[in-house]
Amino acid sequence: MKTLFDKIWDQHLVEDLGDGVHLLHVDRHLMHELSGQRGQVELKKRGIRIRNPELTIGSMDHVVSTVPGAKGGNFPWADKMIESFRAEGKRTGVKIYDIGEDGQGIVHVVGPELGFTLPGTTLLCGDSHTCTHGALGALAWGIGTSELTHVLATQTIVQQRPKTMRARFEGKPAHAVTAKDLILALIGKIGTAGGVGYAVEYAGEAIRGLEMEGRLTVCNLSIELGAKAGMIAPDEKTFAYLKGRRHAPAGALWEQAVAHWRMLPSDADAKFDKEHVLDCTTLAPQITWGTSPEDVIGVDGRIPGNKPEALAYMGLAEGKPIAGTRVDRVFIGSCTNSRLPDLRAAAGIVRGRKAAKHVKAWVVPGSWRIKQDAEAEGLHEIFLAAGFEWREAGCSMCVGVNGDLVEPQARCVSTSNRNFVGRQGPQARTHLASPATAAAAAIAGEVVDVRSF
Amino acid sequence: MQKFQTLTAVAAPFPQRNVDTDLIIRIERCTGMPKEELGKYAFEMVRFLPGGAENPEFVLNQRRYRGAQILVCGEFFGTGSSREVAVWALASMGIRCVIAPSFGQIFFNNCFQNGLLAIVLPQAAVDALAQEAAAPGAKPFTVDLEAQTINGSVRFDIAPRNRKMLLEGLDEIGLTQAMEPKIAAFQAADRKRRPWIYPS
């Protein structure tokens, strides 16, 4: 009778505070050098010690330089922030995965990669894309600085219990229709406020068919649906992915954990407060045209006219096909799409071809480990031969706080998660798409249907 | 935390949908600037023209709305990034209450951590308030948290805990630390149930 969400929530209840507000235990906490550093400072100011430093890990991702060979930030303030985060980690006993170390990378990439993210856990981080971790069957969401400080101080969170929603992705998607396309299509269908007040479980044939990296992409965009959390029931793929990873349980504990995890999926008769169904068989690769992730169409579609302000910002005209729109920048990276299969998919399009002369294309692996693995496969050579830049791991141009920006009015096809006004830089124009679609745009020099490659 | 009981202040209509926290405060301003200085950068991409001059069309630049402490917002205000700096920036420019049909949920929680009252009302009620705020000669609004009313007649719901936190200016960390024995008991039992959670 219980959903995956209900089971995890109930297993973490420390105290019922009344009126649907609960004090929950936090099993796992991730920090990065931007929001985490601020939390460290706040805690220190108040003279509070970290209650369970062994349940938090940190990584450098937001302000680090991604210039090839870089070892710090691009600005003095960034170096200061990195140094402060590092020193405070050392002082408090929180393991920080540092620049140039196996384990460093975007927090939402390295959490799963290190086996720190586990099924059935509550996992929080001062970053809105924390919902990513739900792909392993964790209950994960983003928090602000105050709540982050609360987690460090008490290893708990005070939270209103959300309602439950199930989104079923039915049928098998066509060739070149990826995890990114599936979740963008759902956001297009129910809107960016469609998930407000809900924890969403993604289910159905198309979700079960995805590997872990694709599931991470789906859950990553839960916040763009307005949802509190997004999650996918753990299964054999989840267990196989986690086995042997650095922070994952081993030996007898592994067996005990897996037995527990097998009990987590929603019961067959579990009731959700809301259900959505998406037919995946007819979907085309998706691309956004406006300034909200809900402004999305198939790459073979025409630009709608319902948001004139968005079209003015984007420099687009109503009624024209989106394909053929000239592109200046391509960004392959971010916590949405920077994992090894994403880079392989992009490289598969790029192999033997060259980026259009007017396009500046970047590939930014999600973690130090992914960069090494990709290089071992020779993926970097494919990108470099095509005129792409191959950079160090970090958030980079998804959020631009390290200085990696799109120029004013330049148009970027990006595998990231937000096409907001000014997100990739003042007046920058962002089109969200899958790694394959982004790679194809770099080659063609314009938005193009990757199915024609 | 600053208490919120009753507020009488100018209300500004800001009906744009999906105002994200990137728009409220650019990420470059989230790199350690003191909270009280953030107000001058709030909404900078729409508040100022590319040359740096004020954009006369932006609502908070209009004379009658300067010093507004209440924002009547569009659907899904504060969507996107978790940056609490967005709330600090609003507070720093004097905003104490935001009213909208829905909010980004992280932003919503962040408001209550900083003594800023976020009120959810049905779209029609928000539209009516926005019209009232935009009307010529509009009077200041009065938001009464104790009575849960706006201008004496529009009633709003609020989670009892959030209401109490604001009315009394409570600090959540202090409240939770007082429950330490319960947290310790939870972990002790949980270590037996799920030992793999706790590194030895």
Task: Walk me through what this model shows.
The complex is a heterodimer of chains A (453) and B (200). With 453 residues, chain A is of the alpha/beta class. Chain A has 2 domains: 1-283, Aconitase, domain 3 (2-Layer Sandwich); 286-452, Aconitase, domain 3, CATH 3.30.499. In chain A, 31% of the residues lie in helices and 18% in strands. Chain A has 15 helices and 19 strands. Helices cover 32% and strands 14% of the residues of chain B. Chain B is of the alpha/beta class and 200 residues long. Chain B has 8 helices and 8 strands. Chain B has 2 domains: 6-169, Aconitase, domain 4; 171-200, no CATH class. Chain B has helices at residues 21-24, 44-47, 85-92, 105-112, 123-134, 160-168, 172-177, 180-193, and strands at residues 6-9, 11-14, 70-73, 97-100, 117-120, 141-144, 149-150, 154-155. The chains are: A alpha/beta (453), B alpha/beta (200). At the A-B interface, strand 2, helix 3, helix 5, strand 8 and helix 10 of A face helix 4, helix 7 and helix 8 of B.
What tags apply to this protein structure?
heterodimer; A: 453 residues; alpha/beta; Aconitase, domain 3; 2 domains; five-stranded parallel β-sheet; 15 helices; B: 200 residues; Aconitase, domain 4; four-stranded antiparallel β-sheet; four-stranded parallel β-sheet; 8 helices; 8 strands; 32% helix
